[in-house]
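Worked problem 6 (solution included).
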Amino acid sequence: MRIPTAAVTAGSLIGGWQLARRTGIRPLGGAVLAAGGVVAGREWARHTSPAVTGALLATYLGAFGLSHPLAKKIGAWPSVLAVAALTAAASYVAADRRHT
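Solution. The predicted structure is:
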């Protein structure tokens, strides 16, 4: 069964942030982020080229990094939702759309 990586990336960014926020244990959020990256990365590696896989992984990790300074400007929820949406869109266009 094909896993939609757009949902995995958006869900793990939002879920990881919420878990870290609600528990106060940031490594738990990081574990969710890492698990999402592994799941999505495996799907990307199976269904795209190494260049696309690398670009999508960089986008996913970059979104996580971008969310922190962006949160200082627009707030935490808008920041996380924005980077999750951008990452999901990139995943859909580069990987998921071809296999729906």
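Discussion: The two ends are 11 Å apart (CA to CA).
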